[in-house]
Amino acid sequence: MFSKLALKNVRRSVKDYGVWFLTIVFGVCLFYVFNALESQSVLRYLAQSPRVYIVDSIKNLIGMLSVFVWVVLAFLILYASGFLIRRRKKELGTYLLLGMERWQVARLLLAETVCIGAAALALGLVLGVLAAWGLSGFTARLFAVPMTFFTFSVSIPALVKTALAFAAIFLLVMVYHAFAVSRCKLIDLMQANRVNQTLPQRSLGVSVALFLVGIVLLVIAYAMLLTRGLLRVDALFWVMIGLGSLGTLLFFRSLSGFLLRICQSSKGLWYKNLNMFVLRQFNARINTTYRSMTVICLMLLLALGITASSVGLNNTVEQMTNEMYPRDVQLIFWNEPEDPQPDLAAMLKEGGFDPKTECSAWFSFPVYQGEQSNILTQADYDAIVERWGKKEADAFLEREWLKVAADQADQNASLNYCYFLADYAGDKSAAEEKFEGAVSGLAQLGGFSWSSKLQNWMDLMGTKVLVLFIGLYLGVVFLLAAAAVLALQQLTQAADCAGQYRVLSLLGAPARMRGRAVTAQVFLAFFLPLSLALVHAVVGMTAANAVIAEVGKVDAAASSAVTALLLVVVYGGYFLATCWGSRRILRTSR
Questions:
Q1: Taking the model in full, what pTM does it have?
Q2: Is 219 left (phi over 0), alpha (psi -120 to 50) or beta?
Q3: Helix 102-142 crosses helix 156-183 at what angle (to 10 degrees)?
Q4: Domain boundaries, the chain
Q5: Alpha-helical runs (H) found in 265-389
Q6: Element (H, E) at 215
Q7: Which of 19, 533, 528 has the alpha carbon at shortest distance from 286?
Q8: HEC sequence for 229-264
Q9: Residue pLDDT, tens place only, 30-45
Q10: Can you tell me whether residue 587 is helix, strand or coil?
């Protein structure tokens, strides 16, 4: 009987479970994607290098962050469960009134949780597998990983870990439902829709004063951030954070009465459609929700800032690699001063690496030690210009602290060491493997050191992956948390306002007009904190870009595009789902 009733309740209340279901699906998808790192083409590519410890470090850090993410998702799902209990109090009271025991009602809720949770878990895992595959292709192109490493795969350990993590969350939900049912009194359940809330009113003078103080505090915090920079973490840094947070709190606190009076001054706006009703509703609610709106605004700031900074820094790291290591390989060889100048090309060929066949461009040349600086002859400088251009040659001189002279004899210079610069032809990994084998035999002939773009690229790629993945992981988590809390708040308020919308219907307000009023209320709740968060993010990213610009060029377009995409998908999805859910609650409560 319980299973049939549970399935019937799920089918009947499937729309009420919308946000709860959406939160679980998003959470499962996110949790799987970032725990299935072994299926990522870029990480499998890194694992082929001697620097496999980079992959292990990234996996360990993602694993630790997953614990934090699990806690956040558990809170969100429990918070959503509270909305469901509140929404169905009268129904639960009816069950008790008909003679069901409390443990039987708790058992019914348990069965419903299993049904909805299993469906959400299955759908989330399917979307997670597809999203992980898409992310793998995106990172393969982003990090120039050979396409042989890009294959469709499913991570069984990640599937098991995700299933166990959300099974634990569902167990917490069941315990919460049982506790909530055991604590409720029958009279409270039956009269849940009749409970009124006292909403204090604020004077216009106080609201204006709080608004001005909040704006001043925000301007001071912005000025401190732009003048001091983002990296100075001292006592004033925390003062700046405190001023910004307090200014944000006062901004939302002042909206009570202040926004209402501004709109009242515009008669055309105030008396249009149901704007009077919408703004009064929002003005009443902001008295009790300004604290949560402050927290949501700050979470949105973290989501926008972390996401944009991680993408922007990722592109800057790539540019730094190309500037620091313009050539595929660089070899420095030195021997005793009395020894003759070595022929590095012949020595490498003898070791199994023939520059004429393995390189698209190469050049070996001596560097002499003068009285004040190391010397490169004009002829060798011209040869470098011929192969790689004057800009590259001048950058090499600056990087290696070299001076060009007509001839080393003019400076009474002696041989210091020899350089070998080259760009590989064809498969760079295979060419570097041959080069590494050839240079290993030089130790018997003299001292040497070498570095390659591929070698340093693998090191910096680990940094790029770490920055990008963790930035996206945390950014999406904060965005998901902010959107889910907003959605649940608005659905709760829609249920509370059902009686008032019934009165509007009796007074003759058309259904379309009432629907637009609901959308306007949800829009204000979602986009007021987002608007201020965007202002915060613009100032914060200006300071962050100033730091990034010190080491490389900032790719603002890429970071803005990725952040905007996440906003549209996650935040926009919750906004549309909330509008639809709120309209349905008010439509079915007539």
A1: 0.66
A2: alpha
A3: 150
A4: 1-196, 203-272, 274-324+456-590, 336-445
A5: 267-270, 275-324, 344-350, 355-358, 378-388
A6: helix 204-228
A7: 528
A8: CCCCCCHHHHHHHHHHHHHHHHHHHHHHHHHHHHHH
A9: 888 877 776 666 666 6
A10: helix
